[in-house]
Amino acid sequence: MDKSIQQGNVRIIKIDKEALFEFIYESFVADQENMMDVDSTECMNNFAIDWEEGTFIFTAHKA
């Protein structure tokens, strides 16, 4: 498979708002040990989205 991109071509990924926040959440879960300074085997996490404000909240807490 040729992975090069030709001059003048564009590759695009478009996702909706909910999928974008889910992607952000999954990224936080994958890197929570570094971002939150926790042991991921000992904690749980949750997230919330304020659609009106457009903010994302991620929490880590003891399991």
What do you see in this structure?
By secondary structure, this protein is α+β, with helices and mostly antiparallel strands. Helices cover about 30% and strands about 25% of the residues. It has two helices and two strands; from the N terminus they run ααββ. The protein has helices at about 15-30, 30-35; strands at about 45-50, 55-60. The protein has a two-stranded antiparallel ribbon with strand order 1-2. It is flat, with a radius of gyration of 17 Å. The model has no long low-confidence stretch (mean pLDDT about 90).
Question: Summarize this, please?
Answer:
With 63 residues, the protein is of the alpha+beta class.
How would you characterize the largest beta sheet?
A: 2 strands, antiparallel
Order of helices and strands: HHEE
**Amino-to-carboxy terminus distance:** 44 Å
Helix fraction by DSSP (H/I, runs of at least 4): 25-40%
Q: How are the strands of the largest sheet arranged?
A: 1-2
Helix count, DSSP H or I runs of 4 or more residues: 2
Shape: flat
Unreliable stretches (pLDDT < 50, length at least 5) are none
Please tally the β strands and state the result: 2
Supply the helix-strand structural class. Answer: alpha+beta
Which percent band covers the strand fraction? 25-35%
* Mean pLDDT, all residues: 90
Oligomer: single chain
- Provide the gyration radius in Å: 17 Å
